[in-house]
Amino acid sequence: MNARAADEQKVALVTGGSRGIGRAVVVRLARAGYDVAFTFRQDAESARATAAEVTGSGRRAFYRPVDACDEKEVAGFAAGAREEFGRLDTVVASAGITGALGWDAVSSEEWRSVFETNLVGQYWAVRTTASDLKKTRGSVVLVASIGGLTAYPEQVAYAAAKAGTISLARSLAFALAPEVRVNAVAPGWVRTDMTAGLYDEPRARAAIVRGIPRGRWGEPDDVASAVVFLASDGARFITGETLVVDGGNVLSWRAGRRR
Description:
Elements: E1 11-15, H1 20-31, E2 35-40, H2 44-56, E3 61-65, H3 71-85, E4 90-93, H4 108-127, H5 130-136, E5 139-143, H6 156-175, E6 181-187, H7 196-199, H8 202-209, H9 220-231, E7 242-245, H10 253-258
Parallel strand pairs: 1-2, 1-4, 2-3, 4-5, 5-6, 6-7
Helix pairs in contact: 1-2, 1-9, 4-6
C-alpha cells in the first residue's frame, strides 16, 4: 500500500482478466493506481502471472475462477472482492467468447453460450455490483466489438451479442444515472489468442490490415488505454457512449473485406 489512505484507494473489478484484452486492462488499471479483482475461467497459470504484474505495480490483486455467465458465481466473486478491498469503483466486463464460423454453422447450444457469456454475463457483472458503484459514484466499461456495429456474417451470434452490449451500455447509463457512468469500448482486430488463427496466417493478416487506415492490427494495450480513460475522471461527463478502438477499420469495413 502506498502513502495514499486505504479509504481513498480505488478498486476495479474485471471479468475475464487473465488473458488478452482483459489482462491488458487489469495491468493498465494497476499501473493507474487501482487495486484489481479479476476473474478467469480455466487458465490459472495466466491468472497468477497477471496477478504478479498487478502486485509488481505496487497494487493488490484478488482473483478467482468464475463462470462469467453464472449469476451466483459472479455475485460470490463480487462479494469476495468487496470483503477483500472494502469498496468498488470500476467494473469492466471483458469476458467473452466467439463461435463457429459461418452464419448457419452455429448450434443452438453455441448460440446460448455466446449470448450468455458475451451479453448476459455483462449484465450480471453490473447488476451484482451496482449498489457498490452507486456508493462510490463509480463507472462501468463493457467490452463490445465493431462486430456489433457492422455486418459480420461469419459470426452472427457473436456480432448480435456485441450489438446487445452496445445497447446494454446505453440502457444501463440511464438506469444507473446519475451516480454511475456506463460506457462501452468496441475493439476492431486485436492480436489475441482469440484471433491467433487469422493473425498467424500471413494472407489473412495482410488482407485485414488493408482495411485498417492505421496500417496495423491492434494490440490489447490499445484497448486497455481506452478502458482506463473511460473509467477515469477524465471521462466524468461521458456516459452511454461506445468508443471504437479499431484503427479506423469500421470506416472502410466493407471495402476492406472485399479486397
